[in-house]
Amino acid sequence: MAFVLAASPSLRFTGGFVAGSRLPGDFLRYKISKPSLCCPSSPASFARKCCLSASMLVPFRRDDAREPPPPDLASSLYKNRIVYLGMPLVPSVTELILAEFLYLQSEDAVQPINLYINSAGAAKVGEKLPSVTEAFAIYDVMRFVKPPIFTLCVGNAWGEAALLLAAGTKGHRAALPSSRIMIRRHAAQCQEEDTDSVRKIVRDTNFELICLYSFHTGEPPWKISEDIRRPKYLTPHEAVEYGIIDKVLYNEREPKER
Fold first, then answer.
1. Is there a domain that residue 7 lies in?
2. CA-to-CA distance for 16 and 3, rounded, in angstroms?
3. In angstroms, rounded to a whole number, what is the distance separating the alpha carbons of residues 161 and 158?
4. What's the CATH code of the domain at 198?
5. CA 112/CA 115 separation, integer angstroms
6. What is the separation of C-alpha 172 from the centre of its chain, rounded to a whole number of angstroms?
7. CB–CB of 187/159 below 8 Å?
8. Per residue in 208-231, pLDDT tens?
9. Within a 13 Å sphere around the CA of 137, how many CA atoms are in the beta-carbon half?
10. What is the pLDDT at residue 38?
11. Whole-prediction pTM value?
12. What is residue 221's predicted lDDT score, i.e. its pLDDT?
C-alpha cells in the first residue's frame, strides 16, 4: 500500500518535488525528495511553500502498485456531469462552459447537467460595451441544449451569474443555506462623447436583462426594473420568494433553523 501525491501536469512545483514517470491519462506522479525534508531557512518561507504545495496536490491511496491513479478533480466532476462556474465571466471561462455543455449533450441528451455556480458575474463593471454578453452566450446555450440543467448556488451568484441560476430547469434551481444572490442591471458608464449606438446597446442590454428575469421569476417587468436600479441582495429564502430559485438545500443531518 502506498500513498501518492498526484496533480495535473499543467501545475508547477518549485522545490521539494521531483517528477516521476509518465502514467496513463497524461498525468504525472510526484514524490517527496529528501531535500524537502531539510529545515527551512525561515518559518515564514516554510509556511509559504507549504501553502502553495497543499493547494496544488491531490492525495490518494493506492492498495495496488498496478492500480492507475485517479483523475484530477475537474475530470471527476465532469464525469458526473457537473459543470462548475467558479470564476468571473470572461471569454475564456465562457468558452469552457459552452464546450462542456455541448460535449455533455453529445454524450447523453437525456441525463441532466448540473451547473454549480459561485461567481461574481461579469469581470469588469463599468465598461462601455456590455460584458454581460458573456452571460447571454451561456444562457442561450443553456436554453439550446436538450438535457435539463439543474442549477445550484454554492457560494455567490451575483449579477449575471444570478441570471444563469434562474435559467435552470424549473423545480431544480437551488441554493445552499449560506449562499448569497444579487441581481443588478449592467452598470455601463456612458460619457458625453459616446455615440448614440453605444448608448442604445446599453439600453437594449438592460431591457433584455429585465425581460429574462421577468420570464424566469414571474415578476412583472416594472418591478424587476425598479429592483435592479441598485444591487439587490437576497438570502436563499428571499430568492425562493422572488422566483430566482425553487428551493434551499439542507444537509439531512442539519436542522432547518436558518
1. yes
2. 17
3. 5
4. 3.90.226.10
5. 10
6. 17
7. no
8. 999 999 999 999 999 999 999 899
9. 18
10. 43
11. 0.70
12. 94
pLDDT of residue 110: 94
Short-list 117, 115, 105, CA closest to 145: 105
Q: Which residue has the cell 518559518?
A: 43
Question: How many CB atoms sit inside 10 A of residue 240's CB?
Answer: 17
- For residues 150 and 217, membership in a common domain is answered with yes
CA 121 to chain centre: 10
Q: Is 168 exposed, middle or buried (0-12, 13-18, 19+ CB in 10 A)?
A: buried
* Structure confidence at residue 59 (pLDDT): 58
Alpha helices in the chain (DSSP H): 43-56, 73-79, 91-107, 133-144, 160-166, 196-217, 221-227, 236-242
Residues 40, 46 contacting (CB under 8 angstroms) = yes
Closest residue by Cα to residue 216 from 176, 257, 157: 157
Residues 105 and 222 in one domain: yes
C-alpha to C-alpha distance for 214 and 80, rounded to whole angstroms: 32
From 10, 33, 62, the end of a domain falls on 62
Q: What is the reported pLDDT for 41?
A: 47
Read off the C-alpha cell for 145.
Answer: 441544449
Q: If the chain, 258 residues long, is cut into consecutive pieces of 10 residues, what is the mean pLDDT of each piece?
A: 41 39 37 40 42 44 65 77 91 91 94 94 58 88 95 94 95 95 78 69 88 95 93 95 95 61
Q: Which domain holds residue 168?
A: 80-248
Question: 223 and 241 in contact (C-beta within 8 Å)?
Answer: no
Q: Write out the three cell numbers for 82.
A: 457537473
As for how many domains the chain has, the answer is 2
Neighbours of 222 (CB within 10 A): 10
